[in-house]
Amino acid sequence: MSVARKDEPIQGPRTVGELEEAIQETLERLYTGQENVAKQAMRLCLPMERLKELFNQYVADRPIDVTDCLCYNSKVQ
User: Fold this and answer.
1) What is the number of alpha carbons within 13 Å of residue 64 lying toward its C-beta?
2) Of 2, 77, 75, 71, the residue nearest 32 (C-alpha)
3) Can you tell me the distance from the alpha carbon of 39 to that of 30, in angstroms, rounded to the nearest whole number?
4) Positive or negative torsion for Cα 52, 5, 11, 34
5) 35 alpha-carbon distance from chain centroid
6) Other Cβ atoms within 10 Å of 41 Cβ, number
7) Is the CB of residue 46 less than 8 Å from the CB of residue 11?
8) What is the pLDDT of residues 2-61, one digit of tens each?
9) DSSP for 21-70?
10) What CA–CA distance (Å, rounded) separates 51 from 37?
11) Residues 6 or more apart from 45 whose CB is under 8 A from it?
């Protein structure tokens, strides 16, 4: 990721297709804890509240399977 100079505008995705692809990649990285919502909203030129809404829906569409021993340990409190 390149850093914009003080006098340069922040460049986000240029087309709708690029934006949709960038959002999906960002949501996956947020879901796995690899990215920060505020930084990614700035990178995508989206309001942070909008990215939060998209991320909340993304998480709601992927419920945790409590029977999967890799995801859930009932002994952890």
Assistant:
1) 8
2) 71
3) 11
4) negative
5) 7
6) 20
7) no
8) 444 555 445 666 788 888 999 999 999 999 999 999 999 999 989 999 999 999 999 999
9) HHHHHHHHHHHTT-S-HHHHHHHHT--HHHHHHHHHHHHHTS---TT-TT
10) 7
11) 10, 12, 13
* pTM for the structure as a whole: 0.68
Task: Note the residue count of the chain.
Answer: 77
The structural domains of the chain, with segments of one domain joined by +, span 11-77
CB 26 within 8 A of CB 40: yes
Structure tokens at 63: 């419920």
Q: Give the pair of three-digit tokens for residue 58.
A: 């993304």
- CA distance linking residue 6 with residue 36, whole number of Å: 21
Q: Pull the structure tokens for residue 74.
A: 């009932």
